[in-house]
Amino acid sequence: MEPLTLEALPQTCCVCIKHVDRLFGKKQVLFNINLNIPYSQIFGILGPSGSGKTTLVKMIAGVDEATNGEVYVLDKKMPLLSILKEIGYMAQADALYGELTTAENLYFFASMFKMSYAKKQQRIKEVLDLVDLTSFINRQVKHFSGGMKRRLSLAIALLHEPPILILDEPTVGIDPVLRMSIWKELGKLRDNGTTIIVTTHVMDELERCDKLGMIRDGKLIASGSPGDLKARTSSSTIEEAFLHFIGEHR
Ligand SMILES: Nc1ncnc2c1ncn2[C@@H]1O[C@H](COP(=O)(O)OP(=O)(O)OP(=O)(O)O)[C@@H](O)[C@H]1O
């Protein structure tokens, strides 16, 4: 029997990013990113505007491809069409149909996944309740505020109960009370086995993540649990720790 090489062993991480660069023409926006995201954790990605967070999560979601290096999701090299049903992706720009109502948008997206009619109805009810849009079920989405569109996009990402959730700034424009209940739900999903990757600028949300990756100018400058990152830099906040790591990488 052939001896098993390290490469042939199954990955122990849900997402494995190896030596990833991303260039747009001559402009390089990600530089040699190496990152492992374990199963059943909330992994937060933070960094200043334009640092490359969205570019990175798009490659994990399989909607963009690395110029160099590899991205593996559930041991499969991305992008791969058959993995997409395992992922709930909430993009930064809402991809909703303005002419359709809330319910019509949800039924449309639900139809992309194999779900019985009864299951669709049940899930639509649950996710609408979670994002507090039940009373707007028959409202055309073009009349929604930015925060309401974000909430509907989140509901759509959660609809088919994917084992991996990728959320790009999910709580922008959402009030603090609802934000809290959404994070509670993310915690429950994590406890039930979902792997959640989230980009955010909100400090108290970063504290709720199990692990964080800090990106600056397309480079991963630090990763670890919030407690670990603060302890390593003798900081009392994530913000302070981030500034410390920026200083180290000047
Ligand atoms: N399709 C593209 N073509 C050219 N440049 C791009 C493209 N997509 C992203 N970029 C550039 O890549 C860099 C990183 O952008 P990205 O959206 O990943 O940053 P970000 O950290 O998510 O920012 P923000 O927090 O503002 O959303 C930016 O300089 C952006 O202009």
TrEMBL record:
Listed Pfam families: ABC_tran (PF00005)
Keyword set, alphabetical order: ATP-binding, Nucleotide-binding
Domain ABC transporter span(s) in chain numbering: 15-242
SMART domains (alphabetical): AAA (SM00382)
KW ATP-binding (keyword) present: yes
GO molecular function, one term: ATP binding
Signal sequence residues: none
Protein name as catalogued: ABC transporter ATP-binding protein
Organism, scientific name: Paenibacillus farraposensis
